[in-house]
């Protein structure tokens, strides 16, 4: 009996990491959610999946419920309305912490983040607190992205790196593993981002907390179905927030007599 329980427990753990919850935020992803859940289940059978749906008008929540009914590895967090990616992730992180998970994964529902890359990310998490799936490191590939999106991502990352002094190639990327202990080291209550500057904000906070961050090359593909939620408002939010953080960091560095260096940088691998 004890042996059987042990076997079940180990089957639901990722070696060297523990119990892992993949949080998939959704807003109008009815055409994508079943496909992505199926791919995650095949690529990483040990992980649990939480779909964090913001009451999508296209019925994504009901499809998610049906998936959860048929699979004990899938659960759904129904949220009241569209509150942004950052809020959905923070709710998912809290859900994971309350239930004793050791790590959470961020993954888009639209197929841009290949579940087939997840084993490599989890493998890297054995020796890291945060793993960033990077589009802009050696060995990564970006498929079918229009030039304007490529330029936006490269430009945004260059700006974030220069403004915030973070030696990370893809601070805006949203395919990540966080150990819960790393999230505990970050003051999540201070997070204010709503759109995809959430990813930059968490990169910055992790960097400042001095946790171990590694990047793993991924194959990123343009979404095939459904509509992007990217908007000029989301880009503008990222731009002004990065600028404000950069100014604040520099002021702090000056006050500490460390002009030009960022806190925690020496601990970055
Ligand atoms: N719960 C929730 N999920 C959201 C919200 N906004 C976006 N998402 C989800 O977040 C993920 C990323 O959104 P996308 O629209 O793909 O944004 P993006 O990847 O930056 O943009 P594209 O590259 O154009 O697809 C998807 O799974 C969305 O369904 C939101 O307000 N609430
Ligand atoms: Mg997308």
Write the topology of this structure.
Layout: H1 2-11, E1 20-26, H2 33-43, E2 48-53, H3 60-69, E3 74-78, H4 85-98, E4 103-106, H5 118-125, E5 130-134, E6 141-143, H6 147-164, E7 176-179, H7 180-185, H8 197-209, E8 213-217, E9 219-221, H9 232-255
Parallel strand pairs: 1-2, 1-4, 2-3, 5-8, 6-9
Antiparallel strand pairs: 4-7, 5-7
Helix pairs in contact: 6-9, 8-9
This protein binds guanosine-5'-triphosphate and magnesium ion.
Magnesium ion binds near residues 108, 110, 112, 223 and 228.
Protein name: Polyprenol monophosphomannose synthase
Organism: Micromonospora trifolii
Family: Belongs to the glycosyltransferase 2 family.
Task: Give a written overview of the molecule.
The protein contains 9 helices and 9 strands. Residues 1-7 and 262-269 have low confidence and may be disordered. The protein is α/β, with parallel strands linked by helices and 269 residues long. The longest helix is centred in the last third of the chain and has 24 residues, at 232-255. The structure holds guanosine-5'-triphosphate and magnesium ion.
